[in-house]
Structure formats: structure tokens, C-alpha cells
Amino acid sequence: MNRRVVRVGTRKSPLALRQSRWVMDRLAAAWPELACVEVPMVTEGDRVLDQPLDQAGGRGLFVAEMEEALLRGDIDLAVHSMKDLPIDLATGLTLGPVPLRADPRDVLVSREGWTLEELPYGARVGTGSPRRRAQLLAHRPDLQVVALRGNLETRLRKLEEGQAEALVLAAAGLDRMGYGAERVPLEPPAFLPAVGQGALGLELRAGDAWLLDRLAALRDPAAEAATRAERAFLHALGGGCHLPIAAWSEVRGDRLHLLGRVVRTDGARRLEGEEEGSADAAEDVGRRLGEGLLASGARALL
């Protein structure tokens, strides 16, 4: 097939553009004859900013428009934050290889550099994530968790304006944007990140073997095994990306270790577990852990 152009769909936020250009640069380095064309798009999640993520509704709040563009043939590749991707993709689409994963942890950002324990009693902590809210309240029930939405720049600005004493953000986003905000990592296992956090999801049409072959140059085996385990865990729980479900995978050699957690939204109760197995059977590891938590009553917390 004599193709030379790959049209890459991306959200318009500065972070999304940074992520898509990272992918495009690596594709171009591996295949110099390719021309990657950026196609910025606006998703429902970008438009609905006055509601928390779990109330905004809709399947794949940040991805539906890009999936429709793929199916129409308007773009060839969509670059997502893996944590935003629904477990079940639209019919006719598939996930490509997983590139090198950035730091998956959450971080606490404040003007004073406080740790979670050092935050003043009743401090306001900004996040639109039910998972972050639930874990914050599990550790500090006195905190006021306020729903701050918007892109990374908007949330940091709201912190500077005094709308909250601290924010919980993804380390990967800050790192990719080169922001030096005062931050304290929220370390696992005390605080677990979202499924797939820090990884990029490369979505394409299921029959596009030509593009899939070229994306193989971006594959990182450890990142792929870790995200497969985490997504299988989420799938076994029947959960979506905006439920209080958290996971943390580590790959050492050919072994994969997975921690998983389900937290009631008020943080008052949680179930968690761990599972280990071959990295080559990552999805089996995730499925076993999810089924184990369901057997322990996780459904009642969701």
C-alpha cells in the first residue's frame, strides 16, 4: 500500500497536543517517509466543564468524537490519555501498541508544598475525579474536596487564585508540560492511580494492518503489559474510567505485580487486593484480581 500520510486526531488542550506531537515525532523518526498531519478536535468532555466527570455522563467523555472521526475515515489514528479510554472501544476500532509510560502516580500540588498529612484541617482540595476524591477522604475525612474542572493550566490558575489550598494532579501531565509546580507524590500503595494513568492509548481502525505495523516501533513491552492488566481488572469489575477504581502495576523482568482498589465515594469503606503472574498473561492477572474483589463485595461500593 502506497500510503504516505497519517492523520492524527487529538484534543485541542495543550497537554493533548503535546502528547500527540510526541507520538508523531516518534513515528516520523521510525518511518522518515511518513508525513503525520495533526487534526485537533473538541470532545464533549472539553465542552462540559460545569459538572464533575462522573455527572457529565456519556460513554467515553473525551473520546467519542475521535472514535466517530476514525470510523468515518476522517482521521487514521487517535491519541488519547489511556485513563480516559472506555474499556470497550467502538465496534470496528482497536488499540495499537502502548508506548513508553510516563510516571503513573498522582501528586499533591500546593503553594506551600504540603504533604497530605500536613494540609490544614478542613483544607479545600481540588479534583474532578471520584477516585481521587474517595481516596483523599479515606485518608483525611476532614478535607473539603471541591470539583475543579478544566485543563491543566486552568486548574493551576484556580489554585493560584485561592479557589483551593491544594490540587491532586497526574504527575505525567505536569512532566509532559514541563511544569515545575510544587508537588508531593502520593505514593502507592497508600494512594493508587487511575487505570492506565501515565500511558497513551493509540486507537485506530481494526482493519488497518498497514498503520498497525508502523506503530509497532513505538511499543514498550512493560507499559503494554501493565496497562493490559489494569484494563482487564477494570473490565472484570464492570467499571468505567470515572468510577472510584484504582490500580497500580509493576513489571519486573517477566513478572507482573498488580494492586487494585475499589473505594466507596465517601472514602468510608474500601476493598483492595493484589495479584501476580507472568507479564505475558497480564490480562489474566487483572481478571483474577477483579473477580476476587467482586467476590468480596466490591459491587456494593460502585
Q: Can you walk through the features of this model?
A:
The chain folds into 3 domains: 120 residues, D-Maltodextrin-Binding Protein, domain 2; 81 residues, Periplasmic binding protein-like II (D-Maltodextrin-Binding Protein, domain 2), CATH 3.40.190; 83 residues, Double Stranded RNA Binding Domain. Helix 9 runs parallel beside helix 10. 32% of the residues lie in helices and 24% in strands. It has 302 residues and is α/β, with parallel strands linked by helices. The longest helix is centred in the N-terminal third of the chain and has 17 residues. Its cofactor is dipyrromethane. One of its GO terms (cellular component) is cytoplasm.
Task: Write a compact overview of the structure shown.
The chain is an alpha/beta fold and 302 residues long. 32% of the residues lie in helices and 24% in strands.
CATH class membership of the largest domain: Alpha Beta
Question: Looking at this structure, what is the CATH superfamily of the largest domain?
Answer: Periplasmic binding protein-like II
Q: How many domain units? A: 3
User: Helix/strand/pairing class, anyone?
Assistant: alpha/beta
Strand order of the largest sheet: 2-1-3-10-4
Largest sheet, strands/sense/barrel: 5 strands, mixed
Straight-line distance between termini: 47 Å
How many β strands by DSSP? 13
Oligomer: single chain
Portion in helices: 25-40%
CATH topology of the largest domain: D-Maltodextrin-Binding Protein, domain 2
Number of helices: 10
Keywords: Porphyrin biosynthesis, Transferase
Subunit structure: Monomer.
Function: Tetrapolymerization of the monopyrrole PBG into the hydroxymethylbilane pre-uroporphyrinogen in several discrete steps.
GO molecular function, one term: hydroxymethylbilane synthase activity
